[in-house]
Amino acid sequence: MVNSATVSSSQPPSSVDGRASRWDQHRTVRRLELIASARKAVHRLGPSASMEEIAAASHTSKSVFYRYFGDKDGLRHSMGEVVINQLREAVISAGESKASPEEALFSMVHAYLAQAERSPNTYEFVTAHLETSDSRALAHFFSELTVMMHERMADYVHANRADGASADSLAYWPEGALGMIRSVGESWLRQSPHDPARPSAELLARRVSDWLLYGISSITKATRKVSR
Fold it and tell me: What's the domain range around 45?
């Protein structure tokens, strides 16, 4: 006798797993498509664009964005993961490509500024609340930068350290440098690109790296002093 429950049983697990896998792949692709279209919308509309405006520019409904990202902060977080990872790749690669610590620092600052300048609106949108969000990409990026800057500049400090200067004087420099680079960069991004006083990304990167290496004495006649 045939058991009717056996006849009506569900499909084999492999078939179910295959459908689930295809559905997950579809959702992943769709998320990336929505992030890409949202980036274009924010680039054109500005960092204060609403979810409704972003959805309209993306030729889809607001409910689709809510389904995939929850809310605007969810979209900001997901977009931020992508943007920060691309920024990280550019900056880290720039730092690794130069032989001297001085040129490595300049290249990293220049890469950061050039990437942010590609879309100031997108940069502002994704960085506005990253410090207060659970952004593993941002934390990992800053951690990598801190280690790289410390390692690259340690040799420079060792070779140029004044007699009697403390060996651990570089301890807080990477974090301070990152704060300065970001603060200067964001002030620069807010400046009109048509302002004749606005320096190019390359020129500003050179100025910032000089300030970090030589202090304000790089643009004054003051005698450079090294803190002991």
Answer: 17-70
Within 10-103, strands assigned E span: none
Within-domain flag for 135:
yes
| Interatomic CA distance for residues 35 and 51, integer angstroms | 12
Cα distance between residue 176 and residue 181, in whole Å: 9
Q: Identify whether residues 41 and 153 lie together within a single domain.
A: no
Residues 50 and 100 both lie in one domain: no
Structure tokens at 2: 């045939």
Phi, psi of 27 (to 5 degrees): -65, -40
Of 210, 84, 99, 204, residue with least CA distance to 144: 84
- pLDDT tens for 48-106 read 999 999 999 999 999 999 999 999 999 999 999 999 999 999 999 998 888 888 999 99
Distance CA 84, CA 126 (A): 8
Q: Which residue has the tokens 């890469």?
A: 111
Residue 93 and residue 28 share a domain: no
Summarised one tens digit per residue, pLDDT across range 131-152 is: 655 667 777 888 888 888 888 8
Q: Which two tokens stand for residue 39?
A: 């980036």
Assign residue 46 a region (left: φ > 0; alpha: ψ between -120 and 50; beta: otherwise). Answer: left
> CATH no. for residue 135?
1.10.357.10
